[in-house]
From TrEMBL, chain A:
Organism field: Melastoma candidum
Protein known as: Uncharacterized protein
From TrEMBL, chain B:
The protein, known as: Uncharacterized protein
Phylogenetic placement of the source organism: Eukaryota, Viridiplantae, Streptophyta, Embryophyta, Tracheophyta
Highest taxon of source: Eukaryota
Length: 234, 273
């Protein structure tokens, strides 16, 4: 077991997913940020807002992904003012791609940009480590995504409803959390469509249980505060 | 004494003259001085009226405690304080720098500083130094948008949390917080919990020790409770005191007060616009 080094850079082990459905997109992520083997934040929010209608899921180095999303938010804000109307998802994704590609030697972050605009509807763009941009019907990223490739090949289908997409998302993230040590905590989802943005939150005990997982237990501290049992009588 | 043939103008930039000497000394086996770190336990929590920050007071230089009562809770703005862990020079310098920037910003805008402003300034600085400025900070304050608590890591990433701990004693302190924290704590409960968390760091972590400092920030009011708790008093003090060997004999004492001997007489006309 390596010694606890709290000076290690913050990384988000992570599972991040973006899925399109008929009418919009659903973005989902776990909530664990780790420094080496210590969980620095067990309830972090990895789905960050870029504009009213475009959000980004962050993975990899916490510092790098936060700075990139801050810069893109700033550029998109300027772009929206100059354009006079809300930015499209494609523009947001390309701004992220330009920063990722041009600084590829220094950055270590994988991002999934998802949103809704009136021209193209719901779109998901995956921007992994080197700065490639790939428009996909669904995208997965982070260390936990390794365990989901087979799952999505089997479970993904075109033209899902919002409820189907969201429950697929929660199922997928909880499967990854079960197998990946660097993912954990709660499942956060963000649904973006023509009507706006809805954030959802699924605490650990509401997630389905998989093979060999034990159900959530109340804190053992409750035993300490419970009254002592009555003496036995014969 | 020989004079230089040409007087060179002073050059800007870094001077690497002593690097060769340092290399030579290192080869001979001399270990350089280690820099002062604050091993540290620092914590923050949000309670019903605002934010409470806590810190221990031990500063270490390798295995030696170099300061038994240092101040780790740094002033950023009248409504914002920042606890610092890591290299003491880095935390002091970065918090001083951002504190000055915040004051200039207050002059420019005419408004009370916001915690998120301090956060962005610190995060930008630390990220641009790619983790070489070894400062891990717990930033807390109350502004017009409410109470805020953030942690900032040396590489520039930040987290926004209701309770946070940093430093070598962070695991011990976090254990206390995770078992006893709840939302809507009163001021006394909050201070009690912060003191427990810092004490847990002081007694279980070698890099933390000495006393507990607490800082309570609420809307429009702050209380810096320096040495709120002293759980490590110095026992067994020698009553005999110390006796020093006899000094050199004093032959003559002459004291010259450094007061102005010149009288200023107002002559001429008063200044006119």
């Amino acid at each position: 077991m390596d010694s606890l080094n709290l000076d290690e850079p913050h990384s988000m082990g992570t599972t991040i997913i973006g899925v399109t459905y008929d009418g919009g997109v659903v973005l989902g992520a776990d909530s664990r940020t780790s420094t080496g083997v210590y969980v620095a934040n067990r309830a972090s929010d990895k789905i960050t807002q870029l504009t009213d209608n475009v959000y980004v899921c962050r993975s990899g180095s916490a510092a790098d992904s936060q700075i990139v999303s801050d810069y893109v938010r700033y550029f998109l804000h300027q772009h929206t003012i100059q354009l006079g109307q809300p930015a499209t998802v494609k523009v947001a994704a390309n701004l992220v791609r330009l920063l990722s590609y041009n600084n590829k030697n220094m950055l270590q972050t994988g991002l999934i940009v998802g949103g809704w605009d009136k021209y193209e509807g719901g779109k998901i763009y995956g921007i992994p480590l080197g700065g490639t941009i790939l428009e996909q019907p669904f995208a997965i990223g982070g260390s936990g995504s390794s365990y989901l490739y087979g799952f999505f090949d089997q479970a993904w289908k075109e033209g899902m409803t919002k409820e189907e997409a969201e429950s697929l998302m929660v199922k997928a993230v909880s499967l990854a959390i079960a197998r990946d040590g660097a993912s954990g905590g709660v499942v956060r989802t963000v649904t973006i469509n023509a009507d706006g943005v809805t954030r959802n939150f699924y605490p650990g005990d509401t997630l389905p249980l998989w093979h060999e997982e034990i159900p959530a237990q109340n804190s053992l501290l409750d035993i300490l505060s419970a009254p002592s049992p009555e003496p036995m009588s014969m | 004494m020989s004079k230089a043939a040409v007087d060179l103008p002073p050059k800007g930039g870094f001077s690497f003259d002593l690097c060769k000497r340092n290399d030579m000394l290192a080869k001979k086996g001399l270990t350089g001085p280690s820099f002062r770190k604050t091993g540290t336990t620092i914590v923050g929590l949000i309670f019903q009226d605002g934010v409470i920050l806590g810190a221990d007071t031990r500063a270490t230089e390798g295995p030696i405690v170099c300061d038994k009562n240092c101040e780790k809770i740094h002033y950023m703005a009248p409504n914002i304080y920042c606890c610092g862990a890591g290299t003491a020079a880095d935390t002091e310098a970065v918090t001083d720098m951002v504190s000055s920037q915040l004051q200039l910003h207050r002059y420019h805008t005419g408004r009370e500083s916001r915690v998120i402003t301090a956060l962005t300034l610190l995060k930008k600085h630390l990220f641009s130094y790619q983790g070489y400025v070894s400062a891990a900070l717990v930033l807390g304050g109350v502004d017009c948008t409410g109470p805020h608590l953030h942690t900032i890591y040396p590489h520039g990433s930040t987290d926004t949390l209701p309770f946070a701990t940093m430093g070598s004693g962070s695991l011990a302190a976090m254990a206390m917080f995770e078992s006893k924290y709840k939302e809507g704590l009163s001021r006394d409960e909050g201070i009690q919990l912060v003191v427990e968390a810092i004490c847990s760091g002081i007694f279980n972590d070698l890099g933390s020790g000495s006393n507990v400092d607490v800082c309570v920030i609420t809307k429009g009011h702050k209380e810096y409770l320096r040495n709120h708790l002293l759980p490590n008093p110095r026992t067994y003090i020698n009553e005999k005191g110390y006796s020093f060997p006899k000094k050199t004999e004093v032959l003559m004492t002459k004291i010259t007060p450094l007061k102005e001997r010149v009288e200023i007489i107002e002559t001429g006309d008063a200044m006119e616009e």
